[in-house]
Amino acid sequence: MNKTKIKKLEELLSSPKKIIIIPHKNPDGDALGSCLALMHFLNLKSHNSTIISPNNYPNFLKWLPGEKSVIKFSEQEKLAKTIIKESSLIFVLDFNDLNRIGDLNKIIENSKSKKIMIDHHEKPKNFADLEFSYPKISSTCEIVYNILYNLNPSFINEETATCLYTGIMTDTGSFKYPSTTFKTHEIISKLINHGANGSEIHEKIYNEFSLNKLNLLSICLNNVIKVEKLPVIYMTLNQKELDKCYFKKGDTEGFVNYGLSVKGIKLSIILIENKDEKIIKMSFRSKGNFPVNLFAEKYFNGGGHTNAAGGLSGESLKKTISKLLLTLQDFYYEF
To answer: Which residue intervals of the chain bear CATH 3.10.310.30?
Structure first.
């Protein structure tokens, strides 16, 4: 961890301040977990910190300590704008481009508050006054732990540890992705020592399916298609299938990973239709060196990490599948 940057952060936090913490749109476990962990830490140090999420998030994250205090900009815009206006510091976590926060983009860009970015994605945009950008680290939660540890480890309590454990666990695929290092496991052991209950967290995140979600998974797996002559699987869910299972935000979390459980498959893709937004949401997961972040960025308005990325298409599901199959041929040499 860069000691000069830690020193600058210490100076910014040397007296109590009104602080805003913002995750990316559609926050996942790492985004929300890192924000909540930072909020707990800062409030223990006598700051007044508030999390403003661009929009809502899945129910399986709503048990996290402190979650009920989160303000959703999409639902509480007036309140959020007031709090942002009164702030003196803004932390942005788990993203490095203001386009990732939707309608909050210009509000944060135009804010006179000092901005601090903490993130683990590649190619950060130049908008923050202080950056903690480490693309090789497993998760934003792992970076946040390192920062908090350098600031004052005695303020890492059970609530903070629980939030950090959740983010690291979800962003490493339960510690199985290549980004998981011995340092990641060291940090996890310290978080357990601080009170995080790993088995309980895993149960709440992964083992509380609704019957509707289970039915949706069944449909999705029935839609799996192996791409001819390539180690690639893709699966689809159209709007009618989602509606049939009373789809809720987060219900498809993890579905894409099932493709990689097939022997010999190196790339798995899920395409999900959203007729309200007129988009096809895409998630990419790979094994080895296939760069799904570059693939998503080049063809599907997306990005992310080497083995995990997301993208979007403004075309129909049928046309998006056709484009996907065509563009995969350009990347065949990566397999």
So the answer is: 211-334
Q: With 0-12 CB in 10 A as exposed, 13-18 as middle and 19+ as buried, what is 27?
A: buried
The residues of the chain scoring below 50 in pLDDT are none
In angstroms, the CA 289 to CA 76 distance is: 42
Q: How many other CB atoms are there within 10 angstroms of residue 295's CB atom?
A: 24
CA quadruple 108, 109, 112, 117: dihedral positive or negative? positive
**Positions of CATH 3.90.1640.10 in the chain:** 3-206
**Pairing state between β 308-313 and 279-286:** antiparallel
Residue type, 158: E
* Cβ(60)–Cβ(86) below 8 Å: no
Instruction: Identify the CATH homologous superfamily for domain 3-206.
Output: inorganic pyrophosphatase (n-terminal core) (3.90.1640.10)
Alpha helices in the chain, H assignment, sequence order: 3-12, 29-44, 77-86, 105-110, 140-151, 158-171, 182-193, 198-206, 211-222, 239-244, 292-299, 317-330
* pTM, rounded to two decimals: 0.91
At 156 the pLDDT is 97
285 strand-pairing partners: 268, 308
Report angle CA 235, 318, 55 to the nearest 5 degrees: 65
- Count the neighbouring beta carbons within 10 Å of the beta carbon of residue 7: 11
Q: What pLDDT, on the 0 to 100 scale, is given for residue 334?
A: 65
Q: What is the dihedral of CA 134, 138, 139, 140, to 10 degrees?
A: -20
273: its two tokens: 């239709």
> Per-residue pLDDT tens for 55-106?
999 999 999 999 999 999 999 999 999 999 999 999 999 999 999 999 999 9
Assigned CATH for 211-334 = 3.10.310.30
What b-and-e string marks burial along 222-235, b requiring 16 or more CB atoms within 10 Å of the CB?
Answer: eeeeebeebbbbbb
